[in-house]
Amino acid sequence: MNKMNNEDEKERRKCERFSFVEDIVLNGTTMSTTMDISEGGFYISSLQSYEKNSVIDVSIPFKGEKVTFKAQVQYCQPGIGIGVIFIDLNDKQKAKIKELIESITKKTAQPEREGKNILLVDDNNTTRQAIKSALCKEGFSVIEATDGIEAMKFIAEKNLDLLILDLYMKGMDGFKVLSLLKIHPKWKELPVIVCSGHDTQKVKDKVMNAGADEFISKRGTSPAKLALSAKAVLQKRYQT
Fold it and tell me: Are strands 30-37 and 18-26 parallel, antiparallel or unpaired?
């Protein structure tokens, strides 16, 4: 019985996923970003498509050095990312992965807190500061990000209650951030308000179908009104 329980625990640890947003290199040349890690593999944000069962080299920075693993593609979501499993690991590489996961769990362990944390993602500094000021007046704590990659790192590291998301930004745009959130088991319930000046019906339908809680046009919507919308979304979601 004990042997069976030990085997079950090993399998659980192999499958348990931890948020891990980090820039990596695939096959020595292609820059990508990890979204999570387990002892068994990664989920990687990637615009490039890969064939199922293809083998790639994944290089990640850790403690000042580059660590490279071989991985096999298990599935590909075109334009979003790929799920991979580690293969042919030696004992040293297995130890590195366990050490990396231990460092992640220590970093992300945070005490319980009161109040609501909002991540505000917008590449326009003036717009971002105006919205932040209105949110702070309503009693929110505001974390700022200027693009999708920075946003994903905060999402992985912080305890968030709401995401306010611009769409058209350099690097990873808001559409990609929203797609990654809604396929991730830990983040898919995070409420999202999309706030954009691109307010055609086509854009509205796209973000709502992708899982946003609300779409707000920057045109004609004051920061104060956006802050009130944030309160309403949170009250509806958390019944506070």
Answer: antiparallel
Report the CATH number of the 117-238 domain.
Answer: 3.40.50.2300
Other Cβ atoms closer than 10 A to 29: 7
* Cβ 201 vs Cβ 221: under 8 Å: no
| Global pTM value | 0.70
Write out pLDDT tens, residues 150-191: 999 999 888 999 999 999 998 889 999 999 998 888 899 999
Of the chain, the end-to-end C-alpha distance in Å amounts to 46
> Is the pLDDT at 88 greater than 50, yes or no?
yes
229, two tokens: 């919308």
86 within 8 A of 41, measured Cβ to Cβ: yes
CA–CA separation, 120 vs 166, rounded Å?
A: 8
Fold of the 2-106 domain: Thrombin, subunit H (2.40.10)
Going from N- to C-terminal start, the domains of the chain cover 2-106, 117-238
